[in-house]
Write a structure and sequence with these properties.
heterodimer, A: Chitobiase, domain 2, Jelly Rolls, seven-stranded mixed β-sheet, six-stranded antiparallel β-sheet, B: alpha+beta, Spore Coat Polysaccharide Biosynthesis Protein SpsA, Chain A, Thrombin, subunit H, globular
């Protein structure tokens, strides 16, 4: 079906030339910095024959923070790349406070360690180039792991460890090969597509303007497959009638040649072409592509890292050791030890308080630590549990258990972070150089495991977290009432995102109309004016409120008929980096509400990729502990604490009973998700002021960090603050168990009753009344009766 | 609805409850859930009195308790990796589970306490013959006189009532003892008691050898008598006149009845009541047993023989070989044997005897350790679970009565557990503070509510904990000695029989002071750790509170072991009898409005007569109007002690002087003539005390008693160091029972 013999290449190039693209071989000379913080830095000019197989975007920010941290990437090398000499390039910046004498970068390629390099304090960029022996790399996927040990030059407090950072410039780091000009040879070479400035990989679906909904559906599945094959963590689908330019990849539906063919544009942009005139042909092509997901080339470590690039998949009764996700044993001499594990829970995982995940810690700590030394475990950024490291003589543990309530997890990706805070008396003297000779304070063995108990399998409706976590099946009905390029692109992007979380390319049924009243499970995507008000109302939104809030936004450009592409030059907006987008949003907001914007709030807030939260908690807790409280104060405080433990659940219960429903959107809201229960699932609706805003904001929201915040009954994305505000799922929402066994039903009911304690209380009282009456009847009929 | 259907309904309800109890939910949900159930319980308590709601209340309490048990078992045990934490953790868990099982069994026992109606009256010609046994060993003649006189005065045809004094102090063995002192006193005793019996119309019996203590004595009595029914009264348990009328009828109703047991009612305080000063206001300790538990046991045909205040059927006793036993509590053992042979028992909840209980802490512990060891012996050697012939309900009921006596071990575990955490940081309980509040605290709240609901009228809050703690230290040793040697437990509290005229520390006080010291130290250490450790160690705070609770109980216990001087103050019974006080030649008609063993209080019946200030010795006599018409009243020599005026007029306190045998009949008649008098007293003390009020009261006791105890401890230490030998006090003549009509006692 597809063909990788080079003589064909000339034909393809000729075809491309015929479509008007420049044949001059040039790679994008400028690779703009991805992160706003690196604005102004230019990429190093490269030898055209060299290609940088850059580090891909992952779900983590490319930042090594704190005294110890590590990152890993799967990097794809074509056969040609692997045939020639390969070197590793690392472009980084690090904080001023980093002490070079004590700080190291430890790099591992496919499991082989490279001699650790001194980590310089480099406010400006530094570039490391390291030759790699041929045996250490393989064609296909390779694993690159960078770990940093950083120490502060002058400050010994715990809080100062948060000033240590090293940022890796992913766009300028990776494996440098000589295969730059080589044409695409295997389907896997799709992974060589470059992401744009914001880190998104743009997959352009080239379909004709007159494509039908069914054809768009097949194209969408093709896009999903391409996203998975390429290992892209932030795919953006664009739908357009012509090929694109710049970083990204084109997927052409209905190419001249039969089957699947792959080629590279003159500027190096990969093009996947699925030939055939009928939908059936296209379907066959897609299936051929899907087959490639099974046979991926690469080094074992590389494939392992690829498999867990979105998180390690876990299921009921499974434990994962830290060693299995690439961590090593670690003897740590610094003050704050941090490690983390990303896991992906099943999409039908029901998060409620019926059990605990257990971290079985193996390791130990030396004596002499301050009494407030402790381990803090966070799940998805929130503190979940802790363990004081209180023994003055130190301790070794093989199996110390820390329980993490399952309530803190969600379906899909979760992040478990283990922080060990290890202050000691030596920190107060703060002789930073002599501290290097001290014995290590903390031992972490990579046989530490995270163990998941039996998980209840049920999907809660409405719950966007379940949807975001992968509770989307094959054959989802996708309704695009106003099928212009933007709306269809937004819908396809969402499908790609679902596929990524699910781990397989999902097929869907696109329909260019609004859903019928009794439609059932589906996804509706469109501007709020582009769909009937009954549709908006069916998910609990108030159309009037939307009209009011978004009154000043321009409506979607009109399209005659129901065709993607439409007239004129509706093109997906230019690539803008985050900062530019924000400025544009503020300008827009100022037009709408001239008075309300508070200037000075330009710096992007959440979701930043910086862990300042942890620093804040720590600082505050230190501040409060430094103030020695009196006896009475202490007793008062402890009693208040105790009282709050009693009061909080009651207050929670009352708060949830006062369910306020979905709030009206603000004028700065750029995107709204809403979900409502229907017979056998949920109807999810995604809407925006117009289709342009829809596609732009969907692009923002499918960013891996933002996507995991989607939860509850509805979510609103604010374009100025760049935050997602969610409305909680009502407590008494319905649950569908997905496994009908007694054990699962028991867990699911335990979970549901956890969420509805008043109901459980009532159940308990009724059961007691029944038992009491029964006992009375039996007792009165037994024993001595007078 | 027949029983089968009811049982099926019950099983279904149990299964549903079981499923609800074993659902794993978060601690916040647990807190809300328990809170709702507790509110439901309070609502029932305040609003509903229908018996059905009693069982609903118990079911709700059970729900919370079971949820606690589920959580405790599945979540809180330390891991076996760390043996230092694991072993104490498992022991504490075992102690807690013992308490839960005891709670379950006791809920079964008191599921439906019986209120027995009066038996059908029996025609006089059908009344059976009754032998009254009064076993004695070394009690005073004056004490025995009251009892015998009261027994003789019981309403019953005289030809069918025989009162036997079974004297183990004047046996042949004793009389022929090689020790001349022993021999002489045995002969003297025999002579004295024989004379007493002749005077009062009782029959004196003794035997050859002192074998098998009281049981052997009673069996010897059985061998020498032939009445159909046998009543047993301890030497100081004087029966009311209505005793036989209230009990004999039951034997006619049920031919398979072997026992009618009545409550033990005491006229004097036990050491705890005496030393804390609660006698008049607080219900007696045995009220919980006799007031509620025996009635519950009665429902399941498991009321057992308590050694006295009971009427038994001879033919049943003969079938079982008499009052036999291999344990030292042969009374309960006899009942167990007879129940297993298919005989029935009944309990009549009216106080029909009035007796005296040991007043010194030493004697109290001695008595309790005997009961404890005896029950343990029966549990080990004749375990009711496996004894053939008992019904299921009976097995459970006996198990409850016997395994109750394991409480010292559990109580010691609860006192020592917080110390492990506070001193050594041994984490024997894996929980954070929110779970502790949601599960353990709610469990304790429900427990307190339950205890108060079931026993509120007969037991004040925290008093059970006090009684348990006070017995735990010594009874734990007793249990250990029984376990090591079931047939012959060697632990014994030897009564040295020394009583002083002033307040002093009990001989057994030392362990309590040590314990109090340790608990105080733990409180201080807990406080210091909370202060010094900046980490929020909330669990330590909670454990510290638990320890403080133990400390309060230990504080009150210090007061218990600091003996107040024995004032021999006995309960006054309000009676309304007419009489005449003859002073010299003046005769004043009086109303005798209360009586005690030492004397009476009288009021002149009309204004014309005025009581003089005092009477010259020997010239005053009190004549009590006789019940039997035609009988001329006998006079009792009295002395006028005190005259006072109150709202009702003048009243005078009369003290009895050198009573002779015949006088005792009158005293017995005064005191025990009407059973309703006893009942009135019992009811008057059955005042419940709310949980909050009771707790406040308890804390008040603690502060008061700790200061008193420590003050006396210092005094004793000073005395010990000051003098070479301790002051030799006048030894009291009796080592087992305090003499009653002590001439020097104040009225």
């Amino acid at each position: 079906m597809f063909d990788h013999r080079s003589p064909r290449l000339a034909l393809v190039l000729a075809t491309l030339a015929a479509t008007g693209l420049s044949a001059a071989p040039s790679r994008a000379a400028e690779v703009p910095a991805r992160d706003a913080a690196l604005l102004g830095a230019k990429a190093v000019a490269q030898d055209p024959s060299q290609a940088l197989r850059r580090l891909p975007v992952t779900i983590r920010a490319p930042r090594l923070a704190g005294e110890t941290d590590s990152l890993e990437w799967p990097v794809y090398l074509t056969d040609a790349d692997a045939g020639g000499p390969v070197s590793l390039r690392l472009t980084y910046r690090s904080a001023v406070s980093v002490m070079p004498e004590a700080s190291r970068l430890k790099i591992t390629v496919n499991g082989r360690a490279i001699e650790p390099r001194r980590l310089e304090s480099a406010p400006n960029r530094r570039v490391l180039d390291i030759e790699l022996p041929a045996a250490s790399i393989a064609p296909g996927w390779n694993a690159i792991r960078v770990a940093a040990d950083q120490r502060h030059r002058v400050d010994c407090s715990l809080a100062s460890t948060y000033e240590l950072w090293t940022e890796i410039d992913e766009s300028a780091s990776g494996l440098v090969t000589l295969g730059g000009r080589a044409p695409m040879q295997t389907v896997g070479d799709i992974a060589t597509a470059l992401p744009d400035a914001t880190g998104a990989t743009r997959i352009r679906l080239v379909v004709s303007r007159q494509a039908t909904a069914e054809e768009v559906a097949v194209a969408s599945q093709a896009a999903n497959t391409v996203a998975l094959l390429g290992g892209f963590q932030h795919p953006l689908i664009e739908v357009a009638p012509e090929l694109g330019a710049g970083p990204g990849i084109d997927v052409v539906m209905g190419g001249r040649r039969e089957g699947v063919s792959i080629e590279r544009s003159p500027e190096g942009r990969p093009i996947v072409s699925i030939g055939g005139t009928t939908r059936a042909d296209w379907q066959q092509g897609v299936e051929a592509l899907v087959a490639h997901l099974e046979r991926r080339p690469g080094a074992p470590e590389g494939l392992a890292v690829l498999g867990r690039v979105g998180g390690q998949r876990v299921s009921s009764n499974q434990s994962i050791a830290f060693g299995e996700v690439g961590h090593d044993n670690s003897e740590f001499g610094g003050r704050v030890f941090r490690t983390a594990m990303d896991v992906v829970l099943p999409a039908d995982f029901y998060p409620a308080a019926y059990g605990k995940a257990k971290v079985r810690l193996a390791g130990g700590y030396r004596g002499g630590l301050d009494p407030n030394a402790r381990i803090v475990v966070r799940v998805n950024g929130e503190i979940s549990a802790g363990l004081p490291l209180a023994l003055p003589a130190g301790e070794l543990f093989r199996d110390r258990t820390i329980g993490l309530p399952l309530f803190d997890f969600r379906p899909g990706p979760n992040r478990i972070e283990i922080d060990a805070q290890l202050p000691s008396a030596a920190d107060r003297d703060c002789d930073t150089l002599s501290q290097l000779d001290q014995p290590p304070r903390f031992l972490f063995l990579n046989q530490t495991t995270v163990e998941f108990p039996t998980l209840a399998r049920a999907t809660r409706y409405p719950d966007l977290a379940a949807t975001a976590g992968g509770a989307v099946g094959d054959g989802l009905a996708v309704y695009v009432p106003h099928p212009d390029a933007d709306s269809v692109s937004a819908a396809a992007t969402l499908m790609a995102r679902f596929s990524l979380t699910a781990g397989k390319p999902l097929a869907s049924r696109f329909q260019f109309r609004a859903p019928a009243a009794d439609a059932g499970v589906g996804l509706v995507v469109g501007g709020h004016l582009d769909m009937p008000t009954s549709t908006l109302a069916s998910v609990g939104l108030v159309p009037e409120a939307f009209r009011k809030a978004w009154a000043l936004h321009p409506g979607s450009a009109p399209t005659p008929g129901a065709q993607p592409g439409g007239n004129g030059s509706v093109r997906v907006s230019q690539q803008l980096d985050q900062l530019d987008r924000r400025v544009a949003a503020i300008r827009m907001a100022q037009m709408i509400r001239p008075d309300d914007i508070v200037t000075g709030s330009i710096t992007p807030s959440a979701p930043t990729r910086q862990a300042t939260q942890v620093g804040q908690d720590l600082y505050q807790s230190w501040q409060s502990s430094l103030h020695k409280e009196g006896w009475l104060e202490m007793i008062q405080r402890r009693l208040t604490n105790l009282a709050s433990h009693v009061a909080k659940p009651v207050v929670d219960v009352i708060a949830r009973a006062n369910d306020k429903g979905i709030a009206a959107p603000e004028s700065t809201t750029g995107l709204v998700f809403a979900q409502a229960r229907v017979l056998d699932g949920a109807l999810t609706l995604v809407t925006a002021p117009n289709s342009k805003a829809l596609s732009e904001n969907v692009a923002q929201v499918v960013d891996p960090l933002m996507w995991t915040r989607l939860a509850g009954r509805s979510a609103a994305y604010d374009t100025v603050e760049m935050t997602l505000t969610t409305t909680a799922t009502p407590a008494a929402s319905s649950i569908s168990p997905t496994v009908w066994s007694t054990a699962n039903l028991r867990l699911v009911s335990a979970g549901w009753l956890s969420e509805n304690p008043l109901f459980f209380g009532l159940l308990a009282i009724l059961a007691s009344i029944a038992l009491g009456i029964a006992t009375h009847l039996v007792v009165r009929r037994s024993g001595v009766r007078v | 609805m027949d029983r089968l259907a009811a049982t099926a309904f019950w099983l279904t309800a149990t299964i549903i409850t079981g499923m609800a109890v074993t659902l794993p939910v978060g601690h916040e949900t647990q807190l809300v859930l328990s809170g709702m159930v507790v509110i439901g319980m309070l609502a029932i308590w305040k609003l509903r009195t229908n018996p059905v709601w009693r069982h609903v209340f118990l079911a709700m309490a059970t729900f919370v308790v079971l949820r606690y048990v589920f959580w405790r078992t599945t979540q809180t045990l330390p891991s076996p990796d760390n043996l230092i934490d694991f072993i104490p953790g498992v022991l504490l868990y075992a102690a807690e589970m013992y308490c839960v099982i005891m709670l379950a069994i006791s809920l079964f026992v008191v599921a439906d306490p019986l209120k027995r109606p009066e038996p059908r009256p029996v025609a006089e010609r059908d009344l059976p013959s009754v032998d009254v046994f009064v076993p004695t060993y070394n009690e005073d003649a004056s004490l025995l006189a009251t009892t015998l006189a009261a027994a003789k005065a019981m309403i019953y045809p005289a030809d069918r009532l025989n009162v036997y004094l079974l004297d183990d102090g004047g046996t042949e063995q004793k009389c022929r003892s090689p020790n001349p002192t022993v021999s002489a006193s045995a002969y003297a005793r025999r002579a004295e008691l024989q004379a007493l019996c002749r005077e009062l119309g009782a029959i004196y019996l003794t035997r050859e050898f002192n074998t098998h203590a009281k049981a052997g004595n009673l069996n010897a009595g059985l061998g020498n008598t032939n009445g159909e029914l046998v009543a047993v009264f301890d030497a100081d348990h004087a029966p009311a006149r209505e005793f036989l009328m209230e009990t004999v009828g039951h034997f006619a109703e049920d031919p398979r009845l072997f026992l009618v047991q009545t409550p033990h009612f005491f006229l004097n305080p036990d050491p705890i009541e005496k030393n804390l000063g609660t006698f008049a206001k607080m219900p007696s300790e045995n009220e919980m047993f006799y007031g509620v538990i025996q009635r519950g046991l009665d429902k399941w045909n498991s009321a057992f023989f308590c050694g006295s205040a009971a009427l038994l059927r001879r033919s049943a006793l003969q079938e079982a070989g008499g009052f036999s036993g291999i344990s030292i509590t042969e009374d309960c053992e006899t009942a167990l044997d007879l129940h297993s042979r298919g005989w029935n028992s009944r309990y009549v909840d009216k106080p029909l005897i009035a007796g005296l209980q040991p007043e010194s802490f030493l004697q109290f512990i001695g008595q309790r350790s005997r009961w404890c060891q005896g029950m343990m012996q029966i549990l080990m050697m004749k375990n009711p679970l496996f004894k053939s012939g008992l019904g299921i309900a009976q097995r459970i009921a006996y198990l409850s009565s016997m395994s109750f006596w394991l409480f010292p071990l559990a109580r010691m575990a609860f006192v020592l557990a917080p110390l492990l955490f506070i001193f050594f940081n041994i984490k024997i309980y894996v929980a954070n503070v929110q779970e502790f509040i949601a599960y353990t605290a709610m469990y304790m709240v429900v427990n307190v509510l339950l205890q108060n609901y079931l026993y509120g009228r007969v037991r004040w809050p925290w008093v059970s904990e006090l009684y348990e703690y006070v017995q735990s230290i010594h009874l734990s040793k007793a249990i250990l000695s029984v376990v090591l040697n079931p047939k012959k437990p060697t632990f014994n509290v030897t009564a040295k029989g020394v009583t002083l005229e002033s307040d002093h520390l009990s001989e057994l006080a030392l362990p309590f002071f040590i314990m109090f010291g340790v608990l105080s130290a733990a409180t201080v250490v807990a406080g210091w750790r909370l202060w010094a450790e900046p980490v929020d160690n909330e669990l330590l705070f909670v454990v510290g509170l638990w320890n403080t609770l133990n400390l309060v109980v230990a504080g009150v216990a210090l007061g218990v072991v600091t003996e107040r001087r024995e004032r021999r103050r006995t309960q006054r019974l309000r009676i309304q009898r007419r009489g005449e006080l003859a002073i010299g030649r003046e005769v004043i008609p009086v109303l005798i409005d209360d009586a005690s063993i030492g004397g009476v209080r009288v009021r002149p019946l009309d204004r014309a007569h005025v009581l003089p200030r005092s009477t010259p010795q020997g010239l005053a006599n009190l004549y009590v109007e006789s019940r039997v018409p035609g009988q001329s009243p006998e006079g009792i020599p009295v002395s006028l002690r005190r005259v006072s005026v109150d709202s009702e007029g003048q009243s005078g306190g009369l003290q009895f002087l050198s009573l002779e045998a015949r006088h005792f009949k009158i005293v017995a008649d005064l005191m025990f003539g009407e059973a309703v008098v006893l009942d009135r007293v019992r009811q008057s003390r059955r005042t419940g005390k709310g949980v909050l009020a009771g707790s406040g009261q308890f804390i008040q006791w603690a502060t008061r008693e700790v200061t008193r105890g420590i003050r006396f401890a210092f005094q004793e230490v000073r005395q010990h160091r000051g003098s070479e030998a301790p002051a030799a006090p006048a030894p009291s003549p009796s080592s087992q029972r305090p003499p009653v009509a002590d001439q020097s006692s104040a009225f």
